[in-house]
Amino acid sequence: MSEIKWQEPYCAGGGNACLQIGHTIDGTPILRETSRPEDLLVTTREGLRSLVEAAKRGELDHLL
C-alpha cells in the first residue's frame, strides 16, 4: 500500500482504546486501532462521511 499519512490517534479512557484515521496520497481513507496497527480498514470518502454523519445523528449509539 502506498504511504499513509496518519492523524493523531483518538483515545478514550486512559488511552487503552485508540483509533487512528489516515489517508493515502490519493486520498483513500484508512482506519486502524493503534493496538493492532497491521489491521487496516480501507474505505471510501463517501463511506467515511456516511459513518461520521450517522454517528453525529446518534444512529450508532446502540453499539456503545
Automatic annotation (TrEMBL):
Superkingdom of origin organism: Bacteria
Protein name, per record: DUF397 domain-containing protein
